C-alpha cells in the first residue's frame, strides 16, 4: 500500500537573507532672491468679497509672475497661481508653476499664512522635477510701500503743470523734486491700502496732471 508523500514544508526565508532596503535618494534644490510681482505687466488678481459684517471668507484669486531679480533685466522663473482666503489671518493655497527651461511645467504646492513680515510657507508636494517634494518657502515682505504723493502745481509756459512732487513711504520721504510753488495737492492711500503705480497727462514736455493706482494690502 502506497503512502502519500509528506507535504513539503513551506519555504521560510530568514530576515538576514532578505535583500537589503534600497537607500532613499533626495535632491536638495535651493532658490534664492526670487521676487513675486503683484503689480505690473503679467500680474492678475480678482477679489471676491466675504461676509459683509467682517469680510470672513474674502478671497483673492491671484496669478503673479516670479522673477529672478527686481530690475527690468530680470528673467521670468515661474508663476504663482492660487487663492488667498481671509479667515482671521490671510491663508494662501497656491501652486508655483515653473517657466524656466530646465524646470518648465514642474510645479510646487504650497500653503501658509501671509503677514506683513517674514512668512514660512509649507511645500507639501509637486509635479515633474518636484514630484513628492517637501520643504519650506521663506517669504520676506518688502516693507517699504508708498503711502502718499504730494506736491504743487501752477502755471508754467502758459499751461498748468506740476511744479514739485514729494513721495512719502512707510519708512521715509523722497523729495521734494522741483520748486514748491503754486497750489498744493496731496493724494493719501486709505488705511489698509498702498499706492502701487502712477498715471498722468503731459504737455509736449511737462507733466500736467498725475494720478495713482491703489491696492488693498492683505
Automatic annotation (TrEMBL):
<dbReference type="InterPro" id="IPR036404">
    <property type="entry name" value="Jacalin-like_lectin_dom_sf"/>
</dbReference>
<comment type="subunit">
    <text>Homodimer.</text>
</comment>
<comment type="similarity">
    <text>Belongs to the plant dirigent protein family.</text>
</comment>
<keyword id="KW-0052">Apoplast</keyword>
<dbReference type="GO" id="GO:0048046">
    <property type="term" value="C:apoplast"/>
</dbReference>
<dbReference type="Pfam" id="PF01419">
    <property type="entry name" value="Jacalin"/>
</dbReference>
<dbReference type="Pfam" id="PF03018">
    <property type="entry name" value="Dirigent"/>
</dbReference>
<dbReference type="GO" id="GO:0030246">
    <property type="term" value="F:carbohydrate binding"/>
</dbReference>
<protein>
    <recommendedName>
        <fullName>Dirigent protein</fullName>
    </recommendedName>
</protein>
<comment type="function">
    <text>Dirigent proteins impart stereoselectivity on the phenoxy radical-coupling reaction, yielding optically active lignans from two molecules of coniferyl alcohol in the biosynthesis of lignans, flavonolignans, and alkaloids and thus plays a central role in plant secondary metabolism.</text>
</comment>
<dbReference type="InterPro" id="IPR001229">
    <property type="entry name" value="Jacalin-like_lectin_dom"/>
</dbReference>
<dbReference type="InterPro" id="IPR004265">
    <property type="entry name" value="Dirigent"/>
</dbReference>
<keyword id="KW-0430">Lectin</keyword>
<keyword id="KW-0964">Secreted</keyword>
Amino acid at each position: 500500500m502506497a503512502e502519500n508523500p509528506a507535504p513539503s514544508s513551506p519555504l521560510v526565508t530568514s530576515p538576514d537573507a532578505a535583500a537589503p532596503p534600497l537607500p532613499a535618494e533626495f535632491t536638495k534644490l535651493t532658490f534664492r532672491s526670487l521676487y513675486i510681482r503683484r503689480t505690473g505687466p503679467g500680474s492678475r488678481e480678482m477679489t471676491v468679497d466675504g461676509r459683509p459684517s467682517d469680510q470672513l471668507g474674502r478671497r483673492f484669486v491671484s496669478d503673479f509672475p516670479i522673477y529672478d531679480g527686481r530690475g527690468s533685466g530680470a528673467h521670468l522663473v515661474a508663476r504663482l497661481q492660487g487663492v488667498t482666503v481671509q479667515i482671521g489671518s490671510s491663508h494662501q493655497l497656491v501652486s508655483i508653476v515653473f517657466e524656466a527651461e530646465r524646470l518648465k511645467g514642474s510645479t510646487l504646492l504650497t500653503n501658509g499664512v501671509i503677514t506683513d513680515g517674514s512668512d514660512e510657507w509649507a511645500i507639501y508636494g509637486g509635479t515633474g522635477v518636484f514630484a513628492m517634494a517637501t520643504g519650506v518657502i521663506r517669504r520676506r515682505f518688502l516693507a517699504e510701500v508708498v503711502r502718499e504723493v504730494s506736491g504743487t502745481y501752477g502755471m508754467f509756459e502758459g499751461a498748468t503743470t506740476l511744479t514739485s512732487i514729494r513721495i512719502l513711504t512707510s519708512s521715509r520721504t523722497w523729495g521734494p523734486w522741483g520748486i514748491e510753488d503754486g497750489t498744493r495737492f496731496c493724494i493719501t492711500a486709505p488705511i489698509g491700502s498702498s499706492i502701487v503705480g502712477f498715471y498722468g497727462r503731459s504737455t509736449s514736455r511737462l507733466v500736467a496732471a498725475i494720478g495713482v493706482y491703489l491696492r488693498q494690502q492683505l
